[in-house]
Amino acid sequence: QVQLVDSGGGLVQAGGSLRLSCAASTRTFSSYAMGWFRQPPGKEREFVSAISRSGGVTTYADSVKGRFTISRDNADNTVSLQMNSLKPEDTAVYYCAASYDTLWNSVPTSDFGFGSWGQGTQVTVSS
Predict the structure, then answer these.
(1) CB 108 within 8 A of CB 82
(2) Strands (E), the chain
(3) Other beta carbons within 10 Å of 70
(4) Euclidean distance between CA atoms 106 and 122, whole angstroms
(5) For 71-114, what is each residue's pLDDT tens digit?
(6) What is the C-alpha to C-alpha distance for residues 55 and 123, in angstroms, rounded to an integer?
């Protein structure tokens, strides 16, 4: 399994921006589709965004579409989530996740499709 380390969370006012990063310790990063999930306080974990192994295909939850952007750097073994126009309802612990050996342009969206997870990073958006 790949080891994932999330970072970049923090406290921000509504309308602000944050950039989350996830570093993967593997020599075969391009073998993994990558995703971001979040767990709001008192709620179930939910899908946020995913990016294919190629980086050419991305998908987003409707709640973040147009505000969040996922990207990856296969040379640097990192995946990032740029979050703009943040809302209080974006408050959650955000988790990076990796899905091994998916099709080159596949973007899993269920947490069952991801076998490795980061430790999570807290994002708090104040109103």
Answers:
(1) no
(2) 3-7, 10-13, 18-25, 32-39, 46-51, 58-60, 68-73, 78-83, 92-100, 116-117, 121-126
(3) 22
(4) 28
(5) 999 999 999 999 999 999 999 999 999 999 788 888 999 989 89
(6) 25
